[in-house]
C-alpha cells in the first residue's frame, strides 16, 4: 500500500523547509505530492519542466530524487526511496 502526503507550497511564501513524516523502511511506499501556488492562486507548471525533490535525512545525508510532473492535476510527485 502506498501512502500519499499532499503539500501546498507557495512561490512567494517564506517556507524554505517543510518537514515530512517518514519512518525507516518506508522506501517505495510513501509518495510526496506538491501543489504549487503563487500568492495563494494555483500556479501552472510550464510544459517541459523538470522537477526534483531535495531532502535532508535526520542523519544529515542529502537526497536528490527526480520527481514526476502531472500537468493534468498541476502537481509534482516523488516516491521516497531508501
Strand fraction band? over 45%
Rounded to an integer in angstroms, the radius of gyration calculated over CA atoms is: 13 Å
Q: What's the order of the H and E elements?
A: EEEEEEE
Multimeric state: single chain
Number of helices: 0
Q: Taking all residues together, what is the mean pLDDT?
A: 86
- Strand segment tally: 7
Give the % helix.
under 10%
Structural class: mainly beta
Largest sheet: 5 strands, mixed
Distance between the termini: 16 Å
- Net shape: globular
Low-pLDDT segments: none
What's the layout of helices and strands?
Elements lengths: L2 E8 L19 E9 L2 E2 L9 E5 L5 E5 L1 E3 L4 E5 L3
Parallel strand pairs: 1-2
Antiparallel strand pairs: 2-3, 2-7, 4-5, 6-7
Describe the structure in your own words:
The structure is a single chain. With 82 residues, the chain is mostly beta strands. Helix content is 0%, strand content 45%. The chain is built from no helices and 7 strands. Strand 2 (30-38) and strand 3 form a beta hairpin. The protein is globular.
Key features?
82 residues, mainly beta, 0% helix, globular, five-stranded mixed sheet
Give a quick precis of the structure.
With 82 residues, the chain is mainly beta.
Amino acid at each position: 500500500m502506498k501512502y500519499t502526503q499532499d503539500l501546498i507550497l507557495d512561490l512567494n511564501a517564506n517556507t524554505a523547509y517543510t518537514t515530512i513524516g517518514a519512518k525507516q523502511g518506508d522506501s517505495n511506499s510513501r509518495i510526496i505530492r506538491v501543489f504549487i501556488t503563487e500568492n495563494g492562486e494555483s500556479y501552472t507548471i510550464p510544459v517541459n519542466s523538470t522537477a526534483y525533490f531535495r531532502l535532508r535525512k535526520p542523519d544529515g545525508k542529502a537526497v536528490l530524487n527526480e520527481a514526476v510532473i502531472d500537468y493534468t492535476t498541476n502537481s509534482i510527485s516523488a516516491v521516497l526511496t531508501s
